[in-house]
Amino acid sequence: EDGDGFNEDLWLLPDPGQGETRNMLYDHSVPAMRDWWVNRAIIKATHPLWDGIFIDALTSQDPNSLQYEMIEQLRSAFPKTSHIMVGNALRQMRKAGSRYLMPFFDGSYFENWQVGSQPLPEIVSATIQLGREALFKDKLVHFNSIP
Hints:
The protein is an alpha/beta fold. The protein has helices at residues 8-11, 31-45, 66-77, 120-136; strands at residues 12-14, 24-26, 52-55, 84-87, 107-110, 140-143.
């Protein structure tokens, strides 16, 4: 356990998709880990020098998963008036473009938006459409520079 209460031995799992590398994932099945994560995010995001929080590595594609339950818990406790919550959320290569995530976030970052099984022009078009839909719902949209 480190100085901020995080228990690495009990709250992390090896990422099964990483082969030989040793990336670790939060174990969302541990309620104490989820509470720690939400509380740390709120403490950090409400610091006077911060404007909000960015959530990356949204690995689950199940909107009813414990990962999204944790994000929903953060969303309900998050100071909505002066801070933003952005996630690496909308992705054309996921089912329905992960549109189910829009209510959780004030915006989405788009990375790897040139990846997918369709021809590149269709992938780019689908990603731009996701961005347009997000903008129509008053969400922030951040594209990386690829393709």
